[in-house]
Structures are given as structure tokens and as C-alpha cells.
């Protein structure tokens, strides 16, 4: 049984578990002789540490008494070999050795002239042993030692004495163990943790020594705290614990956020601390974070919080407005070839055009239209609507009018006198050109010499390309009527025919330097002049009538 108790005690020490214990401390009995008694309430064991001269017997009685050497008094003595468990038989009598030695010696060492013996036994011991009671506050010692260097129990002479009413004081437990700890803002001393003895209480301080224990409601800050454990009113040394407090503020977010139809929680925006995770909730406190795919609803208030190092902030409210944009209105439209997206029309705001009903890229305004279906959307408060289909028909341009590119006229004639061929029923329009600007003019416009007029026609709502007609005024004398004088074709590459109502006598071709380059005699009212040998350019035909009258006409040699 003694061995089992010792093993159990050593095992507890190996595990770092300190029992509920108290001690008398080292009691000086006489020079070179001391006694210390430790009581362990958890294991119900007493440990005696006895010192004395290494060359003679030493003895100690313990209990509660006013005198020593009374018969039956429990004592131990060292006989030169071991610590003997014995009982007094009275004055002058040799102590009786107990049938069972309840003391187990764990250490017997000598340093210089001093022997130190450490031994342990159970509180109750055995027959004749003193019964240690943990609740007792004090104990008496009686001591004796041999008067000479001999281990034979003999007369001690004056080497004896009493040490009465030696009080017990608790043995402080070892300092508790605790690691550095991290908390969120708002944590208190009650959140701190440490590991210690079973039944021990923990006290936390702001200093390694002194000061008062902190209340459990004390708010933690970034600093070092100190923890001690108390067992049987004995407080241990303090263990330092570094505490880190993470403060997470509310994220910042615009209080009113506007979105379009189909917006989700993923579209909400807020700004948090670096490294923090932003989460959105349907309530100011509690609940689970909303999935990013959760559809937003108009008029609803959502709440955003952030988490950093497992610490979560309070939440910021954000009210959401959802704008639903209606599709624009538009009807089927017809255009001429060359029309672009910019020509399309629809009723709405921020109109955009696409070539597909959904998705795709907005068409540029310069995109040329083709027959088919186009799709319009409108944008309201940055929100784009669904599409409206618009059927587009592209008509080909009308054919260009035909006619001589150079025509002559008599003074006073108008555009209506020019000869061009247009389709039956076509809308015919005449223009003049100034720089790059065409200006429509009426057919009653009086012709001006060496001017280019332009004519188009419209047979299907699409105006044709313009035919350019250069006009030249016919010049003549009073004896020669210009009316009825015809010169064709003009321009010409080979033969020019000149005719008049009256007889002609001669046609002369003069270049722009005033030189005659060709001529032809006439015998009637029509003559053909061969200009094929001439270089391309502008020439003057001088026409002489049989009656002597003359006229000049400008012609172009191709």
C-alpha cells in the first residue's frame, strides 16, 4: 500500500498536477537540525523533511502535547541505516519499533556534516502512529539527538527540546498554463482561458505582481494580462498572456442603392477593412448571410457586416430601389438603300438598337440597314428594358434619269426646256450645287450659261442618283435665228451633226486658242462635221447660215 501511494503521488507530479497542500515550513529545532512537515489533502499523505548531524541518531516526535517522551507517543528516528517508525515507552526506556514502518523514505542525502531525510506516509499511518488531520492549523514537535557520534540509541543529555504550535501555511500551486489569445472587440476578462488544477480558481491581473484581480466584466484591450490560480486560499505565481483584440468597424455603404430588374445581392456594394469578408443579411442582427444569387426586391432594407479574423462588425442598413424599364414602342419602317441605324425611330429614352432579341452588342449609328428585323431597348435610370422588334424594309434607289450631259439653250429658256428622260409618274427634282450642298430649284428657273444642273427622280420613295447636265447658251446674230439650231451628239467622239430650219453654208471648228482646226461646207440645212481627229477637249462650232447669219455653239470632243 505504501508503494502504491508513493507511485500515485509521483504520477500526479509528473502530470503537472499540484495537490491541495500546506506546510509548516522549515522549523529550526537546534543548530544543524530542522524539521518540515507537508500535508497533502488530495492524497491524504504527510511528507517529513528532517535534517540533523550526519554522524549520529536524530529523533522527532509530533502531535499535540505539552511534554515529550510520554509512553505511546509517535516518533521516528534515524538509526544510521533507515528512518524507524516507533513509539515512546517513557523516560529512559528504549522506544518500541512499530510492527509496520509506515514511512517510505524517498531521499537520504548528506551534504557536509548535515543529513537530509525525506519520507512520506498516509495521514492515518498504522498502529501507534499519530493521525494527521488536514484541517488542523498547527502541530507540535519534540526533538532529540545523540550526544555523541553514535547511532546506538543512548542518553541524549541536553540535546533535546520542544517546538510547539507550529502553524501550517498553504503551499502555493504552480502557475497555470495559458497561451497568447485573440479576441474580438467587446470581449471581457471572462473570455480569457487558462489551464490549472482541478478546483482552482483563476484571477487575472494587469501586472506581474501586486494590484487587484480584474473583474470578469473588464473589457479587454491589446496588452499583456497575468493569470494566477488559487487553491485552498493559496495563490500561485502569475503567467503572462499576450492578448490581441481585433476591432471590426461597420462597413461603409451608400444608404440608398438603385438597381435594375434581375439585380441580386451580388450587385450590392459596400467598403470594408482590408482583408475583411463582406456579408449581406435580411436583418440588423442574427440570421444567415444571404447568397449572392438572392434576388433583390424594391423598398427592402438589407444589412451589411464585415468579418475579419473571425470577428464580425455590427451591420450597416442599405435600402434598395429596383427600376423596371418598359420596352420602347416602335412600328415597322421602310428606308431607301444606304439608310443607317441612325435613321431608325422608336419612342422612349436612351434608345439602343440591336440585331438580336437578347444579348449582343449595341449597333453603331453608322451601321447600314438591310431588310430584316432590328430590336430596340430604352434605358431608364441606367436600366435597360427588354427589346421591341422592328421590321425594316429597304427599297432600292430609283434609276437615274438619262439625257445629254451637255446641252445648249437660247437666252430666256428655263430648266423645263432641258431634255432628260424620266420614268412615267416619277417625281423629278432639279438642283444646283454650291460646294457640297445641293439646293432644290424649280423647273421655272432661267438657265445660266456654263452652269451645271442636277436632276433626280423618285419612283418608289427612294430618290435616284443625280444626273449632271452642263448648259451652254447658244449665241447668234440678228440675221440667224438660234431657235431650232441643234448640235448632236454633244459630247461626241467622231461625228457632230448640225441642223437648222434654214439652209446652212459652213461649219467651222475653233479650239480654245481661237484657231480653226476643222471646217465643213454645207449645201442644205444639215451638215456632219468629223471631229475624230481632234484631241479631247472643248471646242467652238461657228455655224454660218446661207443668208449670212452666224451662231456659235460649244461642243466637247471625247
From TrEMBL:
Residues 487-550 form the Secretion system C-terminal sorting domain. It comes from the Bacteria. Residues 173-246, 250-323, 326-395, 400-470 form the Ig-like domain. Keywords: Signal. InterPro entries: DOH_DOMON, Ig_7, Secre_tail. It holds the Pfam family Ig_7. Residues 1-19 form the signal peptide. NCBIfam families: Por_Secre_tail (TIGR04183). This is T9SS type A sorting domain-containing protein. It comes from Flavobacterium zepuense. The lineage of its organism: Bacteria, Pseudomonadati, Bacteroidota, Flavobacteriia, Flavobacteriales.
Amino acid at each position: 500500500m505504501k508503494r502504491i501511494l508513493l507511485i500515485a503521488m509521483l504520477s500526479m507530479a509528473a502530470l503537472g498536477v499540484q495537490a491541495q497542500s500546506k506546510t509548516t515550513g522549515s522549523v529550526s529545532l537546534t543548530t544543524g537540525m530542522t524539521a518540515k512537515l507537508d500535508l497533502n489533502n488530495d492524497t491524504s499523505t504527510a511528507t517529513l523533511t528532517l535534517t540533523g548531524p550526519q554522524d549520529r541518531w536524530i529523533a522527532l516526535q509530533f502531535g499535540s502535547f505539552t511534554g515529550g517522551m510520554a509512553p505511546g507517543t509517535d516518533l521516528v528516528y534515524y538509526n544510521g541505516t533507515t528512518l524507524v517508525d516507533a513509539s515512546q515507552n517513557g523516560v529512559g526506556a528504549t522506544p518500541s519499533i512499530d510492527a509496520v514502518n509506515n514511512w517510505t523514505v524517498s531521499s537520504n542525502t548528506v551534504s557536509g556534516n548535515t543529513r537530509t531525510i525525506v519520507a512520506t506516509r498516509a495521514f492515518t499511518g498504522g498502529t501507534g502512529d499519530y493521525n494527521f488531520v488536514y484541517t488542523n492549523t498547527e502541530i507540535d514537535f519534540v526533538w532529540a539527538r545523540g550526544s555523541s557520534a553514535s547511532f546506538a540509541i543512548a542518553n541524549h543529555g541536553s540535546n533535546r527540546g520542544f517546538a510547539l504550535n507550529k502553524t501550517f501555511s498553504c503551499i502555493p500551486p504552480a502557475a497555470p498554463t495559458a497561451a497568447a489569445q485573440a479576441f474580438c472587440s467587446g470581449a471581457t476578462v471572462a473570455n480569457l482561458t487558462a489551464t490549472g488544477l482541478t478546483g482552482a480558481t483563476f484571477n487575472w491581473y494587469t501586472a506581474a505582481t501586486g494590484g487587484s484581480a480584474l473583474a470578469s466584466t473588464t473589457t479587454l484591450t491589446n496588452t499583456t494580462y497575468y493569470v494566477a490560480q488559487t487553491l485552498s486560499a493559496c495563490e500561485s505565481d502569475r503567467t503572462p498572456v499576450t492578448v490581441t483584440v481585433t476591432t471590426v468597424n461597420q462597413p461603409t455603404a451608400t444608404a440608398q442603392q438603385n438597381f435594375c430588374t434581375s439585380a441580386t445581392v451580388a450587385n450590392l456594394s459596400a467598403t470594408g477593412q482590408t482583408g475583411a469578408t463582406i456579408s449581406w443579411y435580411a436583418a440588423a442582427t442574427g440570421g444567415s448571410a444571404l447568397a449572392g444569387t438572392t434576388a433583390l426586391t424594391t423598398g427592402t432594407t438589407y444589412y451589411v457586416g464585415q468579418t475579419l479574423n473571425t470577428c464580425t462588425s455590427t451591420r450597416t442598413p442599405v435600402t434598395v430601389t429596383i427600376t423596371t424599364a418598359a420596352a420602347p414602342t416602335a412600328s415597322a419602317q421602310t428606308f431607301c438603300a444606304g439608310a443607317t441605324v441612325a435613321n431608325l425611330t422608336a419612342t422612349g429614352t436612351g434608345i439602343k438598337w440591336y440585331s438580336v432579341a437578347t444579348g449582343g452588342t449595341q449597333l453603331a449609328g453608322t451601321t447600314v440597314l438591310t431588310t430584316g428585323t432590328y430590336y430596340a431597348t430604352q434605358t431608364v435610370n441606367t436600366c435597360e428594358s427588354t427589346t421591341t422588334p422592328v421590321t425594316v424594309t429597304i427599297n432600292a434607289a430609283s434609276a437615274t434619269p438619262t439625257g445629254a450631259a451637255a446641252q445648249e439653250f437660247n437666252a430666256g429658256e428655263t430648266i423645263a426646256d432641258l431634255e432628260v428622260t424620266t420614268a412615267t409618274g416619277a417625281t423629278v427634282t432639279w438642283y444646283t450645287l454650291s460646294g457640297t450642298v445641293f439646293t432644290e430649284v424649280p423647273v421655272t428657273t432661267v438657265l445660266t450659261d456654263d452652269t451645271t444642273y442636277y436632276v433626280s427622280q423618285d419612283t418608289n420613295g427612294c430618290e435616284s442618283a443625280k444626273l449632271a447636265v452642263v448648259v451652254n447658251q447658244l449665241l447668234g446674230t440678228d440675221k440667224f435665228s438660234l431657235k431650232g439650231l441643234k448640235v448632236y451628239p454633244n459630247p461626241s467622239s467622231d461625228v457632230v451633226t448640225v441642223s437648222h430650219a434654214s439652209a446652212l453654208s459652213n461649219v467651222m471648228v475653233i479650239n480654245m486658242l481661237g484657231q480653226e482646226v476643222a471646217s465643213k461646207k454645207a449645201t442644205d440645212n444639215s451638215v456632219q462635221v468629223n471631229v475624230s481627229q481632234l484631241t479631247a477637249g472643248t471646242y467652238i462650232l461657228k455655224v454660218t447660215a446661207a443668208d449670212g447669219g452666224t451662231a456659235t455653239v460649244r461642243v466637247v470632243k471625247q
